Amino acid sequence: MHKTAAMMTHLGGALLTAAFLTRSVASTAGTDVVTYHNDIARTGQNLTETSLTPATVNAAAFGKAGFYSTDGKVDAQPLYLSGVAISGQGAHNMLYVVTEHDSVYGFEADTGAVIWKNPLLQNTGEVTSDTRGCGQVVPEIGITSTPVIDRSRGAIYVVAMSKHVVGSTTTYLQRLHALDITTGAELFGGPKTIQATFGSVTFDPKQYEERAGLLLTNGRLILAFTSHCDIGTYQGWVMAYDPATLAQTNVLNVTPNGGGGIWMAGAGPAADAAGNVFLLDGNGDFDTNLDISGFPASRNFGNAFLKLSTNGGLTVVDYFATFDTVQQSQRDADLGSGGTLLLPDLVDGNGRTRHLAVGAGKDSHIYVVDRDSMGKWNASSNNIYQDITGAISGGVWSMPAYFNGTLYYGSNDDRLKAFPITNAIIASTPSSQSATSFSYPGTTPGISASGATNGIVWAVENSSPAVLHAYDATNLARELYNSTQAGARDSFGAGNKFITPTIVNGHVFVGTQTGVAVFGSLLPATPTNVHIVRGS
User: Fold this and answer.
1) Kind and range of the H or E element at 330?
2) Closest listed residue to residue 188, CA positions, set 201, 197, 177, 199
3) b vs e for 115-137, b when ≥16 Cβ sit within 10 Å of the residue's Cβ?
4) Contact, 363 vs 333, CB < 8 A?
5) What is the rounded distance in angstroms from the CA atom of residue 143 to the CA atom of residue 486?
6) Cα-Cα-Cα-Cα dihedral sign, residues 102, 269, 176, 153
7) What is the 3-state composition of the chain as percent helix, strand, coil, each rounded to the nearest 5?
């Protein structure tokens, strides 16, 4: 049963967050956050921030300025568009939020008004998925992965899981939606039910969830799937769709003759300018019987750092696997628990330009690969650009951020650490670190800066209550702010496991179990800075 635009749209004058009527900040037009961790390299940096600086971010002037309630947990990173033209209302800065209750919200970012809401459960008897016997996403599974926005098409792409119950028959569904960024209405004939085969293997929607963020690159929309815990039979599925039609264009299974899944702590696969996709595959089968090109003969790439080509298909064109990859998978110490980041072009000590990618997992190594020659598998050693040991003390269920020649990592039960990069080599000891240690799963930092100046590293602590931290990017020992400094004033509830903050236009948006906490300036706003959406 499809919903009309009128059913989906709520002009939410009555839903304004009262705090923002007196605590709004002026927006800087033009900045968007359309994908996980800000860009397809997954650096986590916003270099156009002018309002949030080390001088303005402190407990006296900065704090929780509002809270946007939702109908379920917000496990995905909120996305943001500036100056979206809404019919009959003018231009609005928009915040897009998805929930595990299978709803998508278009909030007016500066006020919290609900411009539209689309509950994606479409049929009588359709509900969100149960947990499938796994405690990783609870109490329901709906939309777990961070969507991606194509502003040129006016679309936000979302993958939703549900189940349809008719009598004693239960059918699990995975659907790809393209929604209008101004109304929430379905576009391009969507939604499309996700189905796939690869050789003799068929995609079973009940066995999977899409945890990794969506990727839009090289004219293709990339989805990657993992299992519910390690339950049942599952493989590492990667699928490509045409963003203009939602037609499936390519399917790849990276463990077609074994098991494996793509977890990455919610991080999205990364991509370079040529459309090559980089991801970390989780624990699973890796075939150490290599063909003449050094690839697993059975094409099982479990527990590996993968490079996929999207030119003319979807294929593995290079990879790196640790020498002990089979033993790592057997003891659940896989590489694929964390996300991957593509570093900008770097010049080494010999004047050679290097194209590098970074990833880490449960064994607490930081693996740096040359994207032009990743190293493949060797039985006795890691044939890799750089293998950094002892730098982080915990396993990684998160991903790093990059800013101004420095890599920032927050591993499990470890301090947030800054690793400078010199001559295309990442330091093995941090130049600075936070006083706070971040409990499971560690933290995925985000960066705000104005070009190369006024850098701030933002990190969320998964505790109860959760804590938002802000650090001087040049010295993590200097904490500028945290949300406990003003007592209960800035509390925003219990943490979510893999939450990544969105920092844009003077605001920090943090997903929670009941909505999105909004942080910003607490200084009184002038009347011209207050932007109100009137209901009808």
Assistant:
1) helix 325-330
2) 177
3) bbbbbbbbeeebbbbbebeeebb
4) yes
5) 33
6) positive
7) 10, 40, 50
User: Is residue 177 within 8 Å of residue 158, measured between CB atoms?
Assistant: yes
Whole-structure pTM over 0.85, yes or no?
yes
Nearest alpha carbon to residue 94 among 517, 504, 395: 504
pLDDT at 482 over 80: yes
Amino acid at 430: P
Give the tens place of pLDDT for each residue, 303-340.
Answer: 999 999 999 899 999 999 999 999 999 999 999 999 99
Averaged pLDDT, 200-221: 97
Summarised one tens digit per residue, pLDDT across range 35-65 is 999 999 999 999 999 999 999 999 999 999 9
Q: Where are the domains of the chain?
A: 12-113+398-536
Q: Where are the beta strands (DSSP E) in 274-384?
A: 277-280, 305-309, 315-320, 340-342, 346-347, 353-354, 356-360, 366-370
User: Any idea what DSSP says for residue 212?
Assistant: S
Q: Residue 516 forms beta bridges with which residues?
A: 68, 511
Dmax over CA atoms of the chain, in Å, equals 70
